[in-house]
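In response to the reviewer comment on reproducibility (Comment 2.3), we provide here a single inverse folding case reported in full, input and output, so that an independent group could reproduce the run without further information from us. The C-alpha cells appear first.
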C-alpha cells in the first residue's frame, strides 16, 4: 500500500512535468514568514520559520511543494519539505502528501517520506479534514469554523506507532483561534498578516504565532 501510494504520487508529478503549458490552468508561488512553526498543536524547530511554497493546477488536479525552514532543536533538524497532490471531486477533495525532513544537504527522495492520505469537505459553515498516515497508523481529525471574524479550529489526534500528536496516545491536541488582515504599506501595496493563538490541551501547551505572507 505504501509503495503504491508513493508510485502514484511520483506518476502524478510526472504528468504535471509533461503536461503542455497551455493545459496548466494556474501556477502560483510565495512564502510565509512566521514567528514559529506550529503544526497541529505541536511546535517544530525554534525561532523564525520561513515557509516557501509552489503549486500548479490543471483542472481539478493540483500539486505542489511546501517547506518550512528554521533553527534546529534536539532530535529534529528544523527543516521540512513536503510534496503533495490533490484532486477536487466537488463535495470532497482528496490529498496525498509525502513529508520529508531534510538536513543541511537538502532532501533525499521526496517521494520516500511519511505518506499521509487526507480528505476535506464542508458541512455548512464547518470545514472538516481527516488525515491518515498510511505507514504509521496515525489519525488526525479537524473541524474548522468561523465565529465572527475569528477562525476556530479543533483537532483530535490519535497516534499509531509514532508519537505524532499525543505522545503515543490520543486526545484533543489543537484548539486554535486565528485572524488575518492587510496592512497598507503604500497606496498600491498591502502586506497580508496573520496571527494564531494555539492551545494543545493534551500537552498542556499554548503558542502565539504571528506572520506575514509574500
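Designed residues, in position order:
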Amino acid at each position: 500500500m505504501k509503495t503504491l501510494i508513493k508510485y502514484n504520487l511520483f506518476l502524478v508529478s510526472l504528468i504535471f512535468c509533461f503536461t503542455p503549458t497551455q493545459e496548466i490552468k494556474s501556477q502560483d508561488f510565495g512564502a510565509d514568514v512566521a514567528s514559529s512553526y506550529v503544526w497541529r498543536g505541536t511546535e517544530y524547530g525554534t525561532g523564525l520559520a520561513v515557509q516557501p511554497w509552489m503549486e500548479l493546477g490543471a483542472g481539478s488536479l493540483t500539486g505542489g511543494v511546501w517547506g518550512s525552514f528554521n533553527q534546529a532543536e534536539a532530535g529534529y533538524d528544523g527543516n521540512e519539505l513536503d510534496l503533495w497532490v490533490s484532486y477536487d471531486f466537488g463535495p470532497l477533495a482528496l490529498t496525498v502528501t509525502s513529508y520529508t525532513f531534510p538536513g543541511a544537504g537538502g532532501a533525499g527522495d521526496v517521494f520516500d517520506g511519511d505518506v499521509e492520505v487526507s480528505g476535506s469537505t464542508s458541512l455548512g459553515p464547518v470545514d472538516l479534514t481527516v488525515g491518515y498516515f498510511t505507514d504509521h497508523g496515525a489519525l488526525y481529525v479537524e473541524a474548522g469554523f468561523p465565529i465572527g471574524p475569528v477562525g476556530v479550529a479543533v483537532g483530535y489526534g490519535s497516534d499509531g506507532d509514532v508519537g505524532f500528536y499525543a505522545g503515543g496516545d490520543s486526545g484533543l491536541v489543537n484548539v486554535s483561534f486565528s485572524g488575518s488582515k492587510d496592512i497598507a504599506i503604500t497606496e498600491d501595496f498591502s502586506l497580508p498578516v496573520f496571527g494564531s493563538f494555539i492551545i494543545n490541551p493534551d500537552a498542556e501547551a499554548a503558542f502565539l504565532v504571528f506572520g506575514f505572507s509574500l
